[in-house]
Design a protein that fits this description.
single chain, 585 residues, alpha+beta, six-stranded mixed beta sheet, 10 helices, 27 strands
């Protein structure tokens, strides 16, 4: 395209341009392509008439579909409203923050207005809405800037509404919800990889369907975690649009990690506002990062960077800053323990042998992964050694474990269905469950201080593929039991008719119970206390009394001036006194 003879845009032009007229050019793409033109230098414009010229090149001699459809051209002094799209919400440092990122074809300053949804007036944000300013930069997408802001001081269990603002342009009002403090649920998927199925459009539609199923059936999820490969081509803005521009995404908090298909371009970093991003683990897409949610620490590794030392240093620093976290969950793209196409790749074996011992040393609880487009749940892993002994688990089905010493590794199947890999014909000693039905999957994860449960479902009918639970419990409180035993130890069994109930209650105490069995432990204390209360003393020894009475009866009262004192003493004897009676002697 030319304005007054000055070229202002070109698409699919050969390197160096065309050397002559009537030359073939273009991409020969099967679907229509769209290009956007941004002219910032307008020095070629002149008063009066201006000429716009368009030059078209047929792709090849056999092509027959070239045409120019140009129906209207108007001049306006009013700037058009900015296009705002590719909205992504990500966790802030903790549950009181949400980070936001968006694209706009504007370089005007960006802000976000937000308020509790309950304060909306006729669907509009109130005057009292808070405002968060955005940092911005030039995006890889032609004519667009990216904007990053943080919404702070968010209350738990509250619906919020927000609106993007660029100059005079305002987006529709969107909404999201924070979750209550304590136990929470989040969703987890692997490899949406828009474009991997051969069609950006069909992959985006399948991904939108997965988002619809997850959003409508699990609306109270805190966030949707993706284990990487959001797109198939790292720099493809069309594929990022397919991933982000569904009607559901502006309401979904969506932490992600960098997949190998995301890693080689800064487009990833331009589409996400990452909290606590470090300088460790960096590629063009960004570095390692962490966030916390309700006392759970999430460690997000860009494992496309193969430096184990950097990932270890990052995790040590994050763990030190969040030492009270109830759970430590690592999230990375490449699966260390998978069963499909990548199981024996040299880079996978290197990560397995190097990272698994680091995870063990740092006492990581769970590692969530993707990359191999197949579902795998490992046994609990001691480094690289599977813990297959059934006695370590709570049941013979290996579906739960209490206070494990090992780590659970999960590999997610595709969340969109854009690509699947076949399970290899091998034993894979570390794999407890492996599944490939070529159906999109997602996992529902519920976490509390004591429990981590992950249930994987089919998008098609919400039926379960697999489920596993890890329980973390502190030791039960035995202080009441110890006090009761101390009281029992202070008694002399010889003084009682039957001390067996107390001995039996003490011997029935089972140590090493956990806090989930506190009622049983409290029952031990009550049983001992009840047995002590039921003790009966033995009768006192009346042999001396009986001998004295016999002596008195052997006497002749008539032989004495006054025998009444003896009579009174004999009559004062009360039989059946117990040992501790103060008068039994």
């Amino acid at each position: 395209m030319y304005i007054n003879g000055v070229k202002v845009a070109a698409f699919d032009e050969p390197s160096g341009g065309f050397s002559s007229n009537l030359s073939y050019g273009g991409s020969n793409a099967g679907s229509p392509k769209t290009g956007e033109i941004l002219v910032t230098d307008t020095s070629m414009l002149q008063n009066g008439s201006n000429t716009v010229a368009v030059e078209l090149h047929q792709g090849r001699e056999s092509s027959s579909d070239i045409y120019l459809d140009f129906t209207d051209l108007r001049f306006s002094t009013e700037a058009p409203a900015a296009k705002q799209d590719s909205i992504s919400l990500t966790p802030g440092t903790d549950a009181s923050q949400v980070n936001i990122n968006w694209y706009a074809d504007s370089d005007e300053a960006g802000t976000v207005r937000y308020a509790p949804t309950s304060q909306l007036v006729n669907g509009a944000l109130p005057e009292s809405a808070k405002t968060a300013s955005a940092n911005s930069g030039l995006a890889n997408k032609l004519g667009y800037h990216y904007f990053k802001a943080t919404l702070s001081d968010l209350a738990a269990d509250t619906a919020y509404s927000y609106q993007l603002v660029n100059g005079s342009s305002e987006s529709p009002v969107y909404s999201f919800r924070t979750q209550p403090a304590g136990a929470f649920t989040f969703l987890y998927v692997g490899d949406p990889q828009i474009g991997a199925g051969g069609s950006n459009e069909s992959d985006a539609a399948a991904w939108a369907n997965s988002l619809k199923v997850m959003s409508e059936n699990f609306p109270n999820s805190a966030f949707l975690l993706s284990a990487g490969d959001q797109v198939n081509t790292a720099s493809s803005e069309e594929q990022y649009a397919g991933y982000l521009n569904s009607t559901y995404m502006p309401s979904i908090i969506n932490p992600t990690v960098v997949g190998n298909h995301d890693s080689s371009s800064s487009s990833y970093d331009q589409h996400y506002n990452i909290a606590n991003e470090s300088d460790y683990g960096r590629t063009a897409a960004g570095g390692d990062s962490w966030f916390t949610y309700n006392n759970v620490l999430f460690l997000q590794l860009n494992d496309n960077n193969m430096s184990t030392a950097e990932h270890k240093a990052f995790m040590q620093d994050a763990i030190q800053k969040n030492s009270s976290a109830a759970w430590k969950i690592a999230v990375m793209h490449h699966s260390l323990f998978s069963v499909a196409s990548h199981a024996y790749d040299d880079d996978i074996l290197a990560r397995r042998n190097e990272l698994a011992p680091v995870f063990k040393d740092l006492d990581i609880d769970v590692v969530l992964m993707g990359h191999d487009h197949v579902y795998v749940r490992s046994y609990m892993m001691d480094g690289t050694t599977p813990m297959t002994d059934a006695s370590l688990y709570d049941n013979p089905d290996y579906t739960s474990i209490t206070n494990p010493t090992g780590i659970l590794y999960m590999t997610a199947n595709s969340g969109s269905g854009s690509k699947y890999y076949t399970i290899r014909n091998d034993e894979f000693a570390y794999a407890r469950v492996k599944n490939q039905e070529r159906v999109p999957n997602f996992s529902v994860v519920t976490v509390s201080d004591n429990e981590f449960t992950i249930t994987t479902k089919r998008v098609t009918d919400l039926s379960n593929v697999d489920s596993f639970t890890i329980y973390h419990y502190d030791p039960a409180d035995y202080s009441a039991v110890d006090n009761a035993i101390e009281a029992a130890s202070g008694l002399n069994p010889d003084l009682y008719k039957d001390f067996t109930p107390v001995s039996d209650a003490v011997n029935a105490v089972v140590r090493n119970k956990l806090e989930n069995e506190q009622s049983t432990v409290d029952g031990y204390a009550k049983a001992i206390e009840s047995a002590i209360a039921g003790l009966q003393f033995k009768e006192a020894d009346y042999s001396a009394v009986n001998a004295a009475i016999a002596k008195a009866k052997a006497l002749d009262p008539a032989a004495y001036k006054d025998f009444s004192a003896v009579d009174r003493a004999v009559k004062a004897v009360v039989p059946g006194k117990s040992i501790p009676s103060p008068h039994s002697e």
